[in-house]
Amino acid sequence: MELDCLKTNRIPFYALFDKESVMVDFGAHLRPNKDETKRAMERLLEKD
Model pTM greater than 0.70? Predict the structure, then answer.
């Protein structure tokens, strides 16, 4: 199954959105249990 709108055929994948609901990153590398993902989310929350 290919998800054409996101240009991926890998599942699971994750999407990261900013406060304005704009997708800023997506992919399998954004797993919830990774410290890198937590830091990315914290950076987004700090932005005004």
Answer: no
